[in-house]
Amino acid sequence: MSQDNKDARLDRRNFFKALGAGATVAVAPVAVTPAAAVDPGKDETKARYRESDHVKDFYRVNRY
Amino acid sequence: MARMKFLCDADRCIECNACVTACKNENDVPWGINRRRVVTINDGKPGERSVSMACMHCTDAPCAAVCPVDCFYTTADAVVLHNKDLCIGCGYCFYACPFGAPQYPKVSNFGSRGKMDKCTYCSGGPEADLSPAEFQKYGSNRLAEGKLPLCAEMCSTKSLLAGDGEMIAQIYKERVVKRGYGSGAWGWQTAYRETIAI
Questions:
Q1: Which residues of chain B have a CB within 8 Å of the CB of A60?
Q2: What ipTM score was computed for the predicted complex, to two decimals?
Q3: Which chain A residues are Cβ-neighbours of B70 within 8 angstroms?
Q4: pTM of this structure
């Protein structure tokens, strides 16, 4: 194996190292974007139950 | 704030399945899905008991904990609801639920599942209250109408109670104090035999 070939191989390795480092720098800002969970609004989670006359009747007849 | 709960008095349930039928009709539940079921133990033997089961609207719901798309939410009434637009029909909630509440429509002949369907405590879903879209996806919204779930309102023996947890617990307590429970209940030994002790 000649000295020239060895130099060429080292250069190629350095080339890939530089390429990997560049890729990491390019991807890093995308990776830190926070994941957003779906948050149901106040209207969806509001209380719908109310003690109407209908409900009071239900409670009354169930006491027997 | 009232917390919505179901309570089934197993001494009173006669396994008539009216709650199941009422639920299916009221909410236009698709074929193959029962949001509510009546489970009977010791069928045909002394000590037989039936209990009506549906989603129990858990405080720390395991279905919500395992959902990969986070489609569950709890309302201010402590009712556990889900968003069918987000549901991917993965089935995780079915395996997590200790009551077998989540059900899936069969959408093809190859075992693929549709959107999960479960008891909504007759309080619809994330769509606008009492809208056609809400009815089509989740069924009726009786809570918004000032009513309670039809399964409980239909119960002929007043076995299935629904409403504010504190209120129905108080009702059950009054019943037990007044009538006793199990074989000690009023009339039980007359109906069966005096030696019954179940």
A1: none
A2: 0.89
A3: 37-38
A4: 0.80
List, for residues B104-154, the tens digit of each pLDDT value.
Answer: 998 788 878 889 999 999 999 999 999 999 999 999 999 999 999 999 999
What CATH number has the domain spanning B4-191?
A: 3.30.70.20
Counting other chains too, the contacts that A53-56 makes at CB distance below 8 Å and 24 or more residues apart are A53/B146, A54/B146, A54/B147, A54/B148, A55/B146, A55/B147, A55/B148, A55/B163
Q: Which of A40, A49, A52 is closest, CB to CB, to B4?
A: A49
Q: Where are the domains of chain B?
A: 4-191
Residue B161 to residue A46, Cβ atoms within 8 A: no
B-chain CB neighbours of A58 within 8 Å are 148, 152-153, 163
